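I am going through a labmate's work and have reached the protein record below. What it holds is a sequence and that sequence's fold in token form. Please read both lines and tell me whether the tokens look consistent with the sequence. Do not assume that whoever made the record got everything right. Thanks in advance; the entry in question is below.
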Amino acid sequence: MKKLIQKAEILLEALPYIKSFYNKTIVIKYGGSAMVSDDLKENFALDIVMMKYIGINPVVVHGGGPQINKTLKALGIQSRFIEGQRVTNKETIDVVEMVLGGKVNKEIVSLINHQGGNAVGITGKDGDMIFAKRYKKVNHSPEMDRPEIIDLGLVGEITKVNPHILETLDRNEFIPVIAPIGKGEKGETLNINADFVAEKIASALKAEKLVLMTDTEGVKNKAGKLQSSLTRKQASDLIRSKVIRDGMLPKVNCCLDALKSGVHKTHIIDGRVRHALLLEIFTEEGIGTQIVEKVKDLKPA
């Protein structure tokens, strides 16, 4: 009987969040270990289906770096990165589009549908959803007379998001699963970082939440302690003091950009935890780091 009462208490704890997020949109960037482990993949699909059944509108944006690397290696094509960004030529972009828009995307759709969902797989090219320009990295150095411009090839920087196709899918109760590929200025296919795609889509939809799934617990302070909540100012201070750096820096910047564009709350969570999405969204403690605009927004709902 005690266990049954505990289950009831868990459901009651979730009730205020279910009421608060009913009919709201939550954009989730899905990647890392959660996309590799069979157990975690199944749990992620269950989380997404449950969110949809209780009235939340989840939008999934996925990565697929390890799967791309594996396919390129099998084809004898060498992967090259500059400061974490994949250098993408014509040969590589064909593989990227095949793996992200085909294999990975359809696997996620199948997982969600197998658990009772109604998912549809698309890329940023479908419905002219994501427009981008070629991203060129600029390095400034005191040793150089002028900035060094590094051309990463067919890598995109988003210039516009047209959410019409997502709004149409939402009205018809579908769960969008989006591969991070965009349309260039000349109609070419561009490979885009999935975190950036998730942020721009959340901003375009004025989503209630942006959730970035990672392979770390969340944002930590100088002492290495997980920060369950941060305001924009606190996060900016940690960036200035270089406590937030390396791979966490672009993720936090995505969160700050989303807040600036009208997204209510942003979250960085550990996708290695079973049912990480439900634990972050429907419990008071959460499991990762929520980043919000101001202190008043730190209230659970």
Remarks:
- The chain has a mean pLDDT of 89.
- The CA atoms of residues 70 and 79 lie 10 Å apart.
- Residues 90-114 form the longest helix (25 residues).
